[in-house]
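Entry:
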Amino acid sequence: MSSTRTLDPIPEETAQLRRPLLRHRPFLVLWLVQTLSQTSQNAVNFGLLVLVQGVVERAGTVPANTAVGLAVLSFSLPAVLVSPLSGVVADRFDRRRLLIVTNLLRGVAVIGLLFVESRWIPLVSLATIYALAFASGTVGQFFGPALWSMVPTVVPNGRLVQANALFNLTFTASQLAGFAVVGPLLVKLIGVRAVLGATVVLFALSGALSIALPRAGRAGLRSSTALGNTARSVLREMVEGLRLAGGRRVLRKAIVYLAVATATYLVIAALGPGYVTQVLDLAKEDIAYLVLPAGLGVVVGTLVVDPVTRRLGIERTADAALAVGGLLLVALASLPDLFATPRGELLAAIVLAAALGMADGLVRAPAQALLQQEAPEEARGRVFAVFFTVSNSVAFLPVFGAGALADAFGVTTVLLGLGCVLAGAGIWQVIARRRSG
C-alpha cells in the first residue's frame, strides 16, 4: 500500500479538497463526538482530584499526596492494561456503536460519583472514587481505537493528514479546557458536583451524536460459543495486531514516532517549571511564557501540515520535523551560553517554544495518517491499540524519570541529551530515505 495514496485525490474530488473540512458532515459529527467526550473526560479527571482532596481534608488523617496519586493511577492504569483488548473489540464490532456505548457508560460512572459523600468513612469514600475512576478509565480505553479507526471512513480522500492535525489540535484544547482551564474555573464558580453533572449531559450528547455516524466495517466475531475458544481467539487476534504493527516498517515507524512525541511532550512538561526558574530566572508561574507560544505553534502546525506533506510527502515531513524538533531542544538547552541578557534568553525561549509546538504537530499528524493508511481496515483498531499500549507505557518513564535525571544532571543537560537523540534519529531517517529513494 502506498504511503502517498491520500495525497493524490482523483479529479472529481477536487471540489471536496477546496471545501472546509468541518463542512463535511460525517467528519464534523466525529469531530464533535471527540471534542465533547474528551473535554468531559478531562473535566471528570480534574473533578476526581477535587473529590479526593475533599475527603482528605475532611478526614485529616489520610496522606494527601498518596491519596491524590492513587486517584491519578486509578484513571491512568487502564491505559496500559486494557489497550490491547480494546483494539480487538474495535475490529470485531461496529465502531459507531462502540462510541455510543462508551460515552453512555462513562456518563453512568460519573453519576455514581455524584452519590459519593465526603462524610462517609474516608476509606469507603476513596475506594468508591477509585473504583469508579478505574471503571470510567477502562471504558474510555475502548473509545480511542474506535474513534481513530473511524477517521479515514469520514474524511474525503486526500485530506487525512489535515483531519489528523485538526483532531490533534482539538485533543490538546480539550485537555486544557477540561483539566487546566474550564474545569478548575467552573469548579470554583458552581462546585465540583455541578461540573460532574454537566459532564453527564455532555457524554450523553456525544453518544447521541454518534448515532449519526456511518456504520463502520468490522472483522466480525468468529463463530465460537465456548468461552475458552473465544478467549483463545481474542488472544490470537491481539497477537496478530502486534505482529502486524511490528512487522510493517511504516506502521512500526509511525508508532515509534508517536510514542516519542508523547514522551517528549511529557518530559518538557515535567522539566518546564525547573527550566523557567533555573534557566530563565523567572517565577514558576511564568511558565505561561512558554506554554502559550507552544500552543500557538501547534495551531500554526495544524494550518501548514497539509500543504507541507503535499510537497514533501508524509514520511519525509515526519522525519524532518523530528530532526528539527531535536535541534530546537538543543538550542533551548544552550540558551544560557548563547545570550548574555535575560531578556534575550526569554525572547529566544518564546520563539523556540513556538517552533517546538509547530514541530510537534508536524510529527503527530503525518504519523497518525500513516497508521490509518497502512493498517488494513479490518485490523486498524488493533494497530491503534498497539500504539496506545506502547505510548501509554512509555509515558510513565518521563513522569518518574525526567525529574530525577534533572536533579542529578541539571535541566539543560537532560534537554540537551534528549535533543541530540531526537535530532540524530530524524537526520538518520532523512538520509536513509534519500539513499533508498
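The chain is about 80% helix and 0% strand.
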